[in-house]
Amino acid sequence: MRLLFTILLLSLPIIEIWCIFKLGALYGWWFFLYMILVTYLGWRLIKEEKQLVFAKLMGSMTQGGNPIKTIKKKQNQMVIFFEKQKKRLKINNGL
């Protein structure tokens, strides 16, 4: 079972790269341009969010708050957001 899991885990990046090249061959250079654009935008989003998280934590600590409570609050906000999105999708799909 461990061997099967290890083989599957190691083969996923190879399958992903193969699929990217197949889609690139199917859609042409537009697909690679799209991949570069999405990668760049994702990198910027991660970079900005990282700065925001540290700023909120430092603001919480300077005001005498608990940084763990700040993290939990942000986590709860994310859960509520995803639940609203799920409900919205159910309503739009007529489920």
Brief write-up:
The chain has helices at 2-27, 29-62, 67-93.
Structural commentary:
The structure is a single chain. With about 100 residues, the protein is mostly helical. It folds into two domains: about 60 residues, no CATH class; about 30 residues. Helices cover about 90% and strands about 0% of the residues. It has three helices and no strands. α1 packs across α2. The radius of gyration is 20 Å and the shape is extended.
Largest sheet: none
Question: How much is the radius of gyration in Å?
Answer: 20 Å
Strand content: under 5%
Give the oligomeric state of the chains in this entry, treating copies of one chain as homo and distinct chains as hetero: single chain
> Which structural class best describes the helix and strand composition?
mainly alpha
User: Any low-confidence stretches, pLDDT <50, length ≥5?
Assistant: none
Based on DSSP secondary structure assignment, what is the total number of beta strands? 0
- Mean pLDDT across every amino acid position: 82
The total number of structural domains is 2
Distance between the termini: 38 Å
Q: How many helices?
A: 3
Fraction of residues in helices?
A: over 70%
Order of helices and strands: HHH
Overall shape: it is: extended
Topology:
Layout: H1 2-27, H2 29-62, H3 67-93
Helix pairs in contact: 1-2
Which key phrases capture this entry?
mainly alpha, 95 residues
